What we know:
Elements: H1 2-28, E1 32-38, E2 44-46, E3 51-54, E4 57-63, E5 69-77, E6 82-88, E7 93-95, E8 100-102, E9 106-113, E10 122-130, E11 135-145, E12 150-152, E13 158-160, E14 165-171, E15 177-178, E16 184-185, E17 189-196, E18 199-206, E19 210-216, E20 219-226, E21 230-234, E22 238-245, E23 250-251, E24 258-261, H2 263-267, E25 270-275, E26 285-289, E27 298-307, E28 312-319, E29 330-334, E30 337-342, E31 345-348, E32 351-358, E33 365-366, E34 369-370, E35 375-383, E36 390-392, E37 398-405, E38 409-415, E39 424-429, E40 432-440, E41 452-455, E42 460-462, E43 470-472, E44 480-483, E45 498-507, E46 513-518, E47 522-524, E48 546-547, E49 564-571, E50 582-589, E51 593-602, E52 605-608, E53 622-631, E54 639-651, E55 664-673, E56 682-683, E57 686-693, E58 698-709
Parallel strand pairs: 4-11, 13-22, 23-30, 24-31, 34-40, 43-50
Antiparallel strand pairs: 1-2, 1-5, 3-4, 5-9, 6-10, 7-9, 8-9, 10-11, 12-14, 14-18, 15-20, 16-17, 17-18, 19-22, 20-21, 25-28, 26-27, 26-29, 27-28, 29-30, 32-33, 32-35, 35-38, 36-39, 37-38, 39-40, 41-42, 41-44, 44-48, 45-46, 45-47, 45-49, 49-50, 51-53, 51-58, 52-58, 53-54, 54-55, 55-57, 56-58, ...
Amino acid sequence: MLTFVKKNTMRVRVAILTFFIILQNISALNSLRNIEIAINDSLIFSLNAHSLVYKGEKYLAFRFIQPRFVAQLRIWPQEEGITQVRVLPSPFCQPVDTAMLINNEYFLQHVQFSDIFNSGLLVLRLQIEDTSGHSRIEEIKLFPYTTTVITAYLPDNEVFIGEEKVFELFSNLPENIKFPVGWVSNQDFDYRVEQTGGSIRLHLIPKMLGKKVFTLQLSTLRPDLIDDRTVSYTLPPLVMNFTVKSGRLAFLTLDRQELTFDEVSRREGIEVQIDNNRLLQINKTYRIEDQEKPGGALIGELYTRQSLNNEKVLCRLRLYNLHRPTEGYLYIKDGDEAKFITNFGISPKTTIQTIKILRNGVDWKESNVVYPGELVNIRLEGVGMQKANFKFEEIEWALKDSIVQSDNAVEYRIQIPKNISKKKIFIYNKGENTGSFLQVREFQIPREFDFISMNLGNGFKTVKDFTGPELYEKTLKDIIIRFNPDKIDEPDKLYGKQYIQITAKITGSNGTLIEIENLPVVVVCPGDRSVRHAFYDRQDCSSEEISLNSFLDKKTFDFDDWTKIRLSFKHVKERYEEVPQEKVVEIILQRKIKFDIDVSFPSLLTKIVNQEGWQNGLGVSMAMIAQLSFYQKDKIARFMPYKIGVGFLALNAFDFSNNNNARDLGIVILGSVYPTRRDTKLSFPLYIGGGYLLNTESWFWVFGPGIRVSF
């Protein structure tokens, strides 16, 4: 009777719970008639036909076949009162377009489902607006389910005691399967399941002889529906039949699979634990060789000390050689007879032998020099590198390249901080200083000469901005050279100390060398604005202004017209790895006019004022003129083709006839037109002018050619 009461009470509780769930769902959907999710033409699910009550909650259940897909959502509102229904964004469920009312019957909208395996609880959020202007949000819980299948391919069902064998498994949705972590042990087998990309591998180690059945039971992230109502997160068991055979030798496993070969392990040995076996004798030394037949290479010696309660034997292992597990098994021998089989790795002590650096645009270079702020690839070459765990002192960002990794080399990509304080970045392996380090050097890159400026008397101008010869018309009192340290280092690029050699070469207007002077090398360090300001060695730094006159024997204010000052700014080549820069500034002392005394021999036609006609047409005169010559603008020492001057004119100076009236001496203003070629020694200028004759005491005009000889 008591049992009957309990059963009926339970039925009443279930009925009441179901009733409240139905009332809740009716309340939630009082404004909606139905909702459909259409994944394709054959997969259409509606809330009215495919609702599911699971753990007291109602869901819209739908089947999917891919973790990411676009579904068509159809929403039927009640006949009156609803003006708009649209899907709101929610995690892993995003609307693709805008909801549209189709034929005044239902609202149509497309939604994107993404990463459905890891999305947790999927919720469809709907915003519903009615004719009164009110808006409310309702949630429809979704229950995605799928059918996951896993199978195995067994090319050979024979396995051996202690030997690991790998089988490939196949699944239509491998990302929906939960895999056990690490090795799992049961009575007959030890196994491990791992997924790499889309491949599933089963690692199996048999432990018992005979025909054995291995059953693999896995679960899923998203369940399946059995008979459209029963929720199942468990895959059907995968059953595999094996024939387990015993090898001639028992496999004994060491508790450490990777050992280091060094002087301590060679002389003193290492404490290890190995599987116990009834044939393994205590207090006995066994040889470990790399082949079953006699005469193999001696890998080590195993001395068995005592049995332990965990089915292990405590041993001391001395190592004499290197070994990789991939090279084959190791044989534990009593003399030359193999008794057991095992396998483990013996690698040398991690030792960095070479450091190489790769920078953008260049090949690998054997070097340990790095610079503040740069992003570089570091390759550490040596022995025992694969098992190492390197850390770089004061380096916060270091990314290990998992592809380029072997026993002989490992690569890292590291970011050197701009404000690093150390000059040596020591490399640590598992907390132990390896003794190897990266040498931090300051940048020494030749920077363009925008941090150097010159003042000729009309204000400072950067050396970089000088283009072509600088023509200077005034008296050059001095040349002042100034340095701006704050312009050297930039926030995104460091240049470092600048070693500048300044050479001054002075030449005359005709190209003759007047003086050449090499100024002492100037070292300019980056200023206070540089992030590396505090770390530069500033003992040889100088940023004081330089007066060129303090180094010249002949001062600039004594230079003749058209003197050329050639200043060469060049980085000291020995201080830089890159090609040094050089900038040449030419300063020419330009003049507009030139005053000189000129002696020429004009052959003139003379006209005396108040007399008729021209006289002395064939006579050669001699003129001594103080004249002004005019230079062409923006040309160096090139005269205009005309001159003007005042002087004396001896008319018919070479007429030695008795006609004394033909010769006369006059004061004259004389203009001349000269050819512009500078390479002629003999020229024939054309003269025109006038003046006063002292002998005849009369004014006169002159006109005619002449002869001029230059040396």
